[in-house]
Amino acid sequence: MDVKKFKYAIFLALKILHGDMGCSIPVDILKYREKDRRAIIRIPSKQVTKIWSALTLFSSYDDLECTFKVYKTTPVLSCLNLNSTMYNHKEQDKCTEE
Fold this sequence. Notes:
By secondary structure, the protein is α+β, with helices and mostly antiparallel strands. The chain has helices at about 5-20, 50-55; strands at about 30-35, 40, 60, 65. The N and C termini lie far apart (about 55 Å). Belongs to the eukaryotic/archaeal RNase P protein component 2 family.
């Protein structure tokens, strides 16, 4: 599935659940990885509930079963790069400034 079809699937999910008002919600695909169909999307924060519910209830595209899975949400895009498993914590006695 290419990025245009991916965005169209989101559009369909919004239209099916919320009608014409749903498909008027702006959705930007900031990054898309075709091999596993993962994307970073930008949406208005006031519309999170509508978009999340539409994606959760969406179940088929072109007569094929499909699902959307939300891995992470954040109000600040730069937070998507943060990963606590990669952070090296200092030992407590080394945390004081010298």
